[in-house]
Amino acid sequence: MDIQWDENDNYLNEYNSNWRSSQTCLLLYLICRQLGINAWFVNAFTVVDTRMQCNLWDMIPDRCWLIPKDENMVSWLFDEDVTQWAHEGNLFDWLNTENDAVKKYIRPCKAHPNLLGHQKIAECIAKEISHRKNPMNA
Question: Which residue has the higher pLDDT, 65 or 111?
Answer without folding.
Answer: 65
